Amino acid sequence: MESSPKLSIIIPAYLEEKNIYKTVMEILEAHDILDYDYEVIVVVDGSPDGTAREARRHHSKKVKVYEYGKNHGKGYALKYGTAKAQGQIITFVDAGGDFDPKQFDKCVKLMEIFDADFVIGSKRHPASKVNYPRLRKFYSWVYQKMIRVLFGFSVTDTQTGLKFLRRRVAKDVMPRVLVKRYAFDLEMLVIAWQLGYRRIFEAPVEMRFNDLGTGAANFSAIKNMFMDTLAIFYRAKILNYYLKNQRQ
């Protein structure tokens, strides 16, 4: 019987035909030199282009590609990928290749050193090296101020698309997540916090903004993020929903 890999790298992908092959290749090149096993799970979220075809160009046994016909959003794709993951540690990575995968191992080591529930990348960490549009930076700053007021988080950046968590935490938290698109990252952290998983550490990131993907901020996305955030607040603080309702 094969032992489970140490790390599962889950990549939700929608309209990423131009990026996904390179993103996966960079992950393979960075991780094949490490002394532990890993798997790459690409979840093609109902993408009508050639994203699945490009992901399957990799013939490594470490790469697993799943797809379904209808687009459900990032949150749904990550829940789907988590259900398939076998790793002791699970990480979520954006398909656009914004992050240098060489930094992933540092996050794994931080998980082990601090016995963390989460290690999350933060653009605001003093050691981070980021290059992304000024307007997007402003939106992010305003949003994090709102998060601090609503939820009392000391976390400085909930939305950077690089997060590592224990498999046991993922299996407990993910079935409770309801948001399928915009504020998925926040809801996951809110649920974890309410369930008592509070060993959350922030790590510096090296981030190269890739405007070929679909993550660019726009007014509609900002409005939907705001509405999702208020819905999470209502469920968490008014209804106490996440503690009352067990696995969905």
Concise account of the structure shown:
This protein is α/β, with parallel strands linked by helices. The chain has helices spanning 20-31, 51-55, 74-84, 104-114, 134-151, 167-173, 184-194, 219-238, 241-244; strands spanning 7-13, 38-45, 63-68, 89-93, 118-122, 129-131, 162-166, 200-204, 206-208.
Q: Give Rg in angstroms.
A: 17 Å
Strand arrangement in the largest pleated sheet: 3-2-1-4-7-5-8
Q: Low-confidence parts, pLDDT < 50 over ≥5 residues?
A: 212-216
For this structure, the quaternary state is: single chain
Q: CATH class, anyone?
A: Alpha Beta
Helix fraction, binned, reads: 25-40%
Structural class: alpha/beta
In terms of DSSP E residues, the strand content is 15-25%
State the helix count.
9
Order of helices and strands: EHEHEHEHEEHEHHEEHH
The CATH H-level superfamily is Spore Coat Polysaccharide Biosynthesis Protein SpsA, Chain A
Just name the CATH architecture.
Alpha-Beta Complex
The main sheet comes to:
7 strands, mixed
Mean pLDDT equals 89
